[in-house]
Amino acid sequence: MRVMNMYISMKIVLLKGVWMFTVLYFFSFKSFAQDQHYSQFYNAPLYLNPAFTGTSPQQRIILNNRIQWPVLPQAYTSYSLSYDLSRPALKSGFGLLLNTDKAGEAGLRSTSAGLIYSYKVQMENKWVLTPAVYFGYGSRSINYNKLVFGDQLEFGNTTAPTLDPSASEMENFSYFDSGAGLLFYNKSSWAGVSLWHINEPGISFLDRVDRLPAKLTIHAGTRIALTTHWWNKNDVSYLTTSFIYNQQGPFTQIDLAVNYHIDPIVVGVSYRGIPVKKNALGNMSRDAVVFSSGLRFNQIKFQYSYDFTVSELSVRSQGAHEVSLEYVFTTRANPKRVPKSMKFLPCPSFIPYDSYKIKKKK
Predict the structure, then answer these.
(1) Is residue 362 in some structural domain?
(2) Which residues of 278-289 are buried (b: 16+ CB within 10 A; e: fewer)?
């Protein structure tokens, strides 16, 4: 009986260790090999492309939160906070971007903070060209006390100190990061390209040999005014279509999105994946269908979305939940008189900025 109890205890410890290792490995793979991704990419403009900095009327704050696969003991959680402002007199935009995500029971965390500068060039036919640069600083950390090593499993005691030499070599670390982007837009359409992690910083907890691959993003979209309404001729409904293409290391991904807006309601649907292509793991590259809805009141916009998984994970993953909150504002009506030739159109979004009722302080 004693031998049987010891066998059962060892089996439980082993299964627990394998589960923890699997979760840690999976999230490490996801976090190290790829950046976090927002289904509402159109609601995370600075995270999508630094060239979106300064393309709102004057000032803008956006908060994004994503909880992926909540069925796991510790779901993959991501946050982004961005602030940007436009300075037409300088033909420039300035921005701040903060990102953090946490995964697994060991508290694997990645955090970054960066500054963005964009410059606007007026083209013909009311098109605007905006190049931008990003310089940031990131860090990665993990709670080593919650890691389980092979010798702990072998002796059936996960609380005992490990003798694995790699445990003493692991350490939290920080790194420098850089990126750039280019955006081309007019009043109703936009297209752009961005490149993140140009310097490909080291990301390994042990030797820094493994590096975060550069991420290439190509995106475009257009906003279509549908009709005015008999009860209010100034009330126009819009249909916005957009797509992004991401490539980071061996991974590629396409998002296609359609949003419909009739004040104050927004509804949308998008698809993520490349169904005609196999991914790096040999499976068909289909990920999720995303349904979203939101509200916009004056300067504030809120949207919620749910990822319905269509990949091999199916409903067992319980998809993902995502929310975004945007606030557009100005501090003064005209802080400086800007010549008409130096006034630039705001870049269109799935809710047009010209429909915001921005209160201007005198």
Answers:
(1) no
(2) ebeeeeebbbbb
Q: Residue 329 pairs with which residues in a beta bridge?
A: 59
**CA angle 93-96-97, nearest 5°?**
125
pLDDT, mean over the chain: 76
239: nearest Cα among 282, 268, 270 = 268
pLDDT digits (tens, 9 = 90+) for 134-166: 999 998 877 666 665 555 555 555 555 555 555
Contacts of 341 (CB under 8 A, 6+ apart): 122
Instruction: Name the most confidently modeled range: 182-191, 200-209, 274-283, 328-337.
Output: 182-191
Nearest in space to 263 (alpha carbons), one of 240, 299, 238:
238
Cβ count within 10 A of residue 339:
8
3-class SS string, 30-97: HHHHCCCCCCCHHHCHHHHCHHHCCCCCCEEEEEEEEEECCCCCCCEEEEEEEEEEEEHHHCEEEEEE
For the segment 243-278, what is each residue's pLDDT rounded down to a tens digit? Answer: 999 999 888 889 999 999 887 889 999 998 876 666
CB contact at 8 A, 324 and 353? no
The answer to whether position 361 is within a domain reads: no
- Residues pairing with 304 in the sheet: 293, 323
Q: Which domain holds residue 259?
A: 2-355
The C-alpha atoms of residue 307 and residue 270 are separated, in whole angstroms, by 9
How many domains is the chain partitioned into structurally?
1
Is residue 183 in a domain?
yes
**Is 239 a member of any domain?**
yes
Q: What share of the chain is helix, strand, coil (3-state, %, to 5)?
A: 20, 50, 30
Q: pTM of the full predicted structure?
A: 0.79
- Distances, alpha carbon 341 to alpha carbons 89, 120, 131, 344, 352, in Å: 10, 12, 19, 8, 22
The CB density around residue 324, as the number of other CB atoms within 10 Å, is 23
DSSP reduced 3-state for 154? helix
CATH code where residue 137 lies: 2.40.160.40
Strand partners, 137: 113, 176
Q: What is the DSSP letter of 345?
A: P
